[in-house]
# Entry
Amino acid sequence: MIRMNESDRNAVCQVHARWIQAELRGDCEAVLDLCTDDVRWLVPDSPVLEGKNAARRFLGSRSVSLDRIDTTDVRIEGTDALAYKTCRYETHFGEHGAAESMIARGTHLWILRRVQGRWKVALVTWQPEDESV
# Structure
């Protein structure tokens, strides 16, 4: 296997940017377009979601509006066929109709693989920070 080159890192960065833009628009189909057909979502404290239809149901069930997503400490590593991206996130969101915004912080991980020349997300998971600490 060949180590990931700068062009591939940039392509994964573009997937990351497009994902955030789609989430902020509430465009679940654009998010799913960035995923493999057999994507797995490892949602904290929930059963594994397998495939785009399961992810679509999850994304459609959320009753929050996203105001802002900030990411830091973005790291991208991998080979020419498989990559991972980690980062810290801070998401500002509110319940529909609520006056106050809430903030969720934590870390997340994506595993990506190349599908027909495009980097696609094959696994999504995140770990919220323990707010009680």
Notes: The longest strand covers residues 64-78.
